[in-house]
Amino acid sequence: MKNIILILLLGLLSTSVYADRETEQSAVADIAPKLQEAWNDQDFEKLLALYHKVSRLRYEMEQIQDDEKVERIHLEMMKEFGEMKVIEVGSYDSKKKEFILSVTYSKKGKVDGAISISPNGDSWLIRDWDIDG
């Protein structure tokens, strides 16, 4: 009897984990076009608005203590990589809690990376986005 209860409990837990992953994948698919638009518009403020307050980007801004420098670095990257043509959301790395991304840029070509997101009320925001693997 204990084994049956344990099996049912584990089954329920695995389903809820899978459902959470599906929810996150849906959220990433929702964020991707906004990310692409901000990138292609070379609009750092729009890009920053997609990031959670616990994100690496906001942490860099606090550590460097020069928001203009961080913005300049990102704008230079946007120009160097070129327009974002295609974003493909790949598999989920449960160990790192992130999705594998494949992004095709007009100048840089295809680049593999990863994205992780955090809940923000009723929506989701980017916690980290690694564009170069």
Quick description:
This protein has 133 residues and is an alpha+beta fold.
Polypeptide structure, described:
With 133 residues, the chain is an alpha+beta fold. The chain has a single domain (2-130), classed as Nuclear Transport Factor 2, Chain: A, CATH 3.10.450. The chain is 52% helix and 29% strand. It contains four helices and four strands. A four-stranded antiparallel beta sheet has the order 1-2-3-4, covered by helices on one side. It is globular, with a radius of gyration of 18 Å. The model is unreliable at 11-19 (pLDDT under 50). This is DUF3887 domain-containing protein. Residues 1-19 form the signal peptide. Keywords: Signal.
- The tally of beta strands, per DSSP, is 4
Q: What's the story with the biggest beta sheet?
A: 4 strands, antiparallel
CATH class: Alpha Beta
Order of helices and strands: HHHHEEEE
**Amount of beta strand:** 25-35%
| Helix vs. strand class | alpha+beta
Outline: globular
Helix content: 40-55%
What is the name of the CATH topology? Nuclear Transport Factor 2, Chain: A
N-to-C CA distance: 47 Å
Tell me the count of domains: 1
What is the CATH architecture assignment? Roll
Oligomer status = single chain
Number of H/I helices: 4
Order of strands across the widest beta sheet? 1-2-3-4
The radius of gyration is 18 Å
Average pLDDT reading: 84
Low-confidence stretches: 11-19
Structural key phrases:
globular, 4 strands, 133 residues, DUF3887 domain-containing protein, alpha+beta, 4-stranded antiparallel beta sheet, Nuclear Transport Factor 2, Chain: A, signal, 29% strand
